[in-house]
Amino acid sequence: MNVMIAARGALRFSDLLGNMPAGIAQGIIWGIMALGLYITYRLLQVSDLSVDGTFTTGGAVTVMLILAGWNPIAAVCAAFAAGMAAGTCTGLLHTLLGIPAILSGILTQFALWSVNLAIMGFAANKALNVSKFTLMISSRNIQMAIITGIIVAVVLIGIMYWYFGTEHGSAMRATGCNPEMAKAQGINISVMKVIGLALSNGIVAFSGGLMAQFQGFADINMGKGAIVIGLAAVIIGEVAGDAIAGKKLNFAGRLSFVVVGGILYYLTVVIVLWLRLNSNMLKFFTAIIVAVFLAIPNITSYSKNSFSKAGKNSLKYVNGKEN
Fold it and tell me: pTM of the prediction?
């Protein structure tokens, strides 16, 4: 009897492999979300916490429009517009009213809780009947979900690569790199921040619309912790990109590795669940994963500097005598 119980409780590698495709599909969607976060976190150097709200906004708008008979592609485009509107509010709170960016994001996120409830008819969640509606992406067909996710990610990376190579996009990057210098060059940094926050939250809401279709429902809590997952994808992707390509990694490559970071993050989640660890501890493990990847660049840099210093010091001595 004990042997049978042990057999049932044994970890099966086949179960892990079976769950990997679904993890990859969800990881791609979170990677798309991280592309939006990359605009504020890396390019603008702004801490935007409104993404937890706008991710839910995207899901809510998409589900309600599909239920109303909209085409799912048109629905996620509307979700993108709704996310841009929310991001614009964050930007105006920051630039026009002088509220710090992090507080502006919190205020927008706080307000979106009520807005998202209103969008869903003051219901905590809204379900989509996958058998009734034709969706862009669905967990019913994981293979097609992965293909669709990759196509969307590639198109979005291509658009971002083109845009941030234009004069306007370069001005936005300059704003984040050196605001004072950008201002001296005649760039309106306030406008750049507002546009950047709008684009960022638009992409986040777009990914929220994809996630709502994938899981078959929108929930008021679906964006909870999105900021942490997005940061995890950005950081993991950067570490992986630097480790594989190093200095040869261009801007398009960095954007691509952000999506890869989302996949790697969610595969880690799949492994945690496969190990049958308490799912309530998932956020704890997520925090550990993010902390580890945040520390890797500093640890690597410290190690290189230590070996470099040791090498230089060794040159000062030959046979125990200082040169």
Answer: 0.88
More confident residue, 29 or 18: 29
Mean pLDDT over 225-234 rounds to 89
In angstroms, rounded to a whole number, what is the distance separating the alpha carbons of residues 111 and 157?
30
Encode burial over 163-180: b for 16+ CB neighbours within 10 A, e otherwise. ebeeeebebbbbbbeebe
What is the pLDDT, as a whole number, of residue 3? 36
pLDDT at 6 over 60: no
SS3 string of the chain? CHHHHHHHHCCCHHHHHHHHHHHHHHHHHHHHHHHHHHHHHHHCCCCCCCHHHHHHHHHHHHHHHHHCCCCHHHHHHHHHHHHHHHHHHHHHHHHCCCCCHHHHHHHHHHHHHHHHHHHCCCCCEEECCCCCCCCCCCCCCHHHHHHHHHHHHHHHHHHHHHHCCCHHHHHHHHHHHCHHHHHHCCCCHHHHHHHHHHHHHHHHHHHHHHHHHHHCEEECCCCCCHHHHHHHHHHHHHHHHHHHCHHHCCHHHHHHHHHHHHHHHHHHHHHHHHCCCCHHHHHHHHHHHHHHHHHHHHHHHHHHHHHHHHHHHHHCEECCEEC
Q: Which of 272, 276, 288, 176 is nearest to 232 (CA)?
A: 288
What residues does each domain of the chain span?
24-224+247-257
CA dist 266 and 229 (Å) reads 9
CA 269 to chain centre: 15
Closest CA to 88 of 4, 177, 158, 192: 192
Hey, what's the torsion of the CAs at 250, 255, 256, 258, to 10 degrees?
A: 130
Return the structure tokens found at 23.
């993890």
